[in-house]
Amino acid sequence: MNEEAPFLLSFGEALKAARKRKRLTQKQLAHLIGVHYNTISAWELGSYLPETRGLVLELARHLALDSQETRQLLEASLTALVPHWSVPWLRNPFFTGRQELLETLKMLLGGPASNGLGRVYALQGMGGVGKTQVALEYAYRHALDYSALFWVNAESNEHLTASFLRIAEVLRLAEREEAEQPRVVAVVRGWLDSHDDWLLIWDNLEDLDLLAHWLPATRRGTVLLTTRLQALGTLAQGIEVVPMEQEEGVELLIRRAKVLGRLVSGSLAGQLVVQQPEEYKAAVELTRALGGLPLALDQAGAYIEETGCQLRDYLERYRQQGIRLLGRRGISGSSHPQSVAATLLLTYERARLQQPVIVDLLRICAFLAAEAIPEEFFRAGAAHLGQAIQALLEETGRLDEVFGVLRSFSLVQRQPQERTISLHQLVQEIVRAEMEESERTFWQRQIVKALNAAFPQVSYVVVSHVEVWAQCERLLPHVLVSLNALPEKGVEPAAIELTQKVADYFRERGQYEQAAFRYDQALSLGERILGNNHPALIPILSGLGRLAAIQGKFEEAESLLQRALNSEKQLSGAERNVLALPLSGLAAIYTAQGKYEQAIDLYQQALSAMERMLGARHPEIATVLSNMSYALLGQGKDKEAEPLLLRALHMLEHALGPENPEVGFPLSNLGNLYTRMGKYEQAEGMLVRALHVREQALGSQHVLVAATKNDLADIYKHQGKYEQAEVLLQEALPIMGQALGTEHPAVAQAIHTLGDLYAAQERYEQAEPLLKSAIQHLQQTLGDGHELVAASLNALATIYRKQEKYAEAEQLYREALSIREQRFGKQHPETACTLYGLALLKQSQGEVTQAYTLAKRVRAIRLLALGEANPLTCEACALYEQLEQTGGFPGISGSREPPGAVSL
Prior knowledge:
Blueprint: H1 11-21, H2 26-33, H3 37-45, H4 53-62, H5 67-77, E1 84-86, H6 99-109, E2 119-124, H7 131-141, E3 148-153, H8 157-171, H9 181-194, E4 198-205, H10 208-214, E5 222-227, E6 237-240, H11 246-257, H12 268-275, H13 277-289, H14 294-307, H15 311-326, H16 340-354, H17 358-365, E7 373-374, H18 375-380, H19 387-394, H20 398-408, E8 413-415, E9 420-422, H21 425-434, H22 437-454, H23 466-484, H24 493-508, H25 512-530, H26 538-550, H27 554-565, H28 580-592, H29 596-614, H30 619-634, H31 638-656, H32 664-676, H33 680-698, H34 703-719, H35 722-740, H36 745-760, H37 764-782, H38 787-802, H39 806-824, H40 829-844, H41 848-865, H42 871-885
Parallel strand pairs: 1-3, 2-5, 2-6, 3-4, 4-5
Antiparallel strand pairs: 7-9, 8-9
């Protein structure tokens, strides 16, 4: 007889169970309480019930029941729970959960009201959410806390009159038989005025004026309302009743469907997941599909009980013909005889009688995500949402009025702080079902146009403001719902642009799988609607190419961008400016591949197009300048790259602000440039700032944040801050691996940096496998002749040189030198790095003459390219001077490295 038992026992069942537990026969129990033994039999059979509360209490005493069991036996007897009891509904044997809500009611309603004002609380929520059932359960659980408990149907004056007449009968008032009903009602109100500790439950209140008119002037008891109204003024304090969470909903569904039988106790969901896991999965999916609405779950459970089908069967039928099932109430003895479809549709009809524009408003909401619909969407997309919506928005305060009506019927919830509205998914289904097919298609098309107007354009080159991203995030769930439901025919061209904008957003946020899916969707739609060579495909192809390049798929990226450029013939003079997108994208690929001359030529073409299209000071131009400087750095043209980067940084700071994440690009490139120039403090400052703005805007898990940490770690390695460098690399590698894939060149480059760091610490056993792994992956993705391959070969050669594995070291140095001379030429600083390593190798082998020749060459290159003050130039000069002092004679210089030498 536990209060939490899933199925409540009848009085007869409870009595029989307690008697047997006490090991008494019916005759023995009858003797103890002084009744005929046939009486006990009749009670247990349910033929009739004890006439008085005293008899029930006497039974409890002789059966040694505790206080809780006694209370439950009293409730089960349904006789004289309180001196005055008028509740027309039996207790719901399937009531489930809501424990926190019931505890709240107990705290607020419990105890006497001594101030003469009483307590008035309201259970608020949409139709079918279970307000009446919660009130009913509270009445049965806590009836003994009151001297009188009355249930009133508050839908109309007529229902109220009938309820008050029934109360007069229960109170056995002398005036109950009078012909004038108002007189009888007045007497009942008078009784409430003069008595304490009563609970009056007003069920389904639709009109607050009725409450004000019918309540007694002095309320010495407690009033509990159930209502869809959200605004209650000063008449009552609201308690929100929301749909069930998944766990409670699943439990109710299983219990109502009697999947495990009637008398099973404990957690049904826990037992079902063990005994019938597929049925449990179906229960979870069905609860989610019905949005946790108790009436819908009860309705589904009743259908399953009546038809004997499985949960899986019902789920499949619901997916195919949901509205028909929602309209079928089935056999019901509950206090809510209407189906969920009828309940919600009736509410919808009542609301639109008050405000006809509600029809269009709910139809729009029916094709969006159910939660958190931004209010600004209606304004941003108003031109596509019909004249009624436009007129509504033009008149100040009218939208608030309409939302007020919708809230009064609990059809929507408004979140004022977030400036959003939400509605239940079953309301959406009812509204969609009420439309003709042509109307549904019309609204789907218009909503796509409205979303496209509202969704910001995330620039191809410039990472957008954080505010723009925030707006994208507010609209994104609704955009995805709309795009996932596009019809097969009649798709608007706006859907192509909207899909591309969403893909751009995903790409810039580092969500590459989602970006690829949406780009593919946009391209498929564009080719189907516009043809394979339409200029509108250029931004999509450019975006796909950019994404492929980020992922290290350079051949695929180049093919896509070349296809975009081939649309040149389809464009007029002014339209040709759109080619800036694929031009700059292709230039970035050539830069990554080390094709610097081709890259710079394409960047210059892109700059010309952008300046014509956007003006000379647009921030997108600054980003192209920053990217072009990277190609110049690849050519060793540091002096040409630095002013471009400083100009780009100034332009972006002025246009976007110093905290915009786009500023991170020139900052990062300047950091790398100053690292190469040996200006480590300046480099560190630039990269620390880049890391800050990127973390603030993009979050700590973004791939650009990880890339910045990798660059900063490289500086710390040069400064001897090994622990700081290692921490940054350990943070960066997992992020890059997850975002880009473990085979990506950027991931291999980060592995190289970690290996080089370990080498600087003489942790060769850890460094060697990392560098070998980096070489292997870079060769596979970029080819044997790429500069990044040369860098890793050079680092591994240095380890072998220090381990005195001279043959292996020289082979790797020669391979790296060949790549760098071919890529950069014989006078480039990167070429000098490998020459310097070879010079140290020859010195270690005692081949001083060759070492001197190499050191002289390194010194000359660095003096010319880097300047006399550069640390790399200084170390080359130190080696040259040391070798010059030996006079070129072998054997004088030992295997020790010269002072100031560093590992490269």
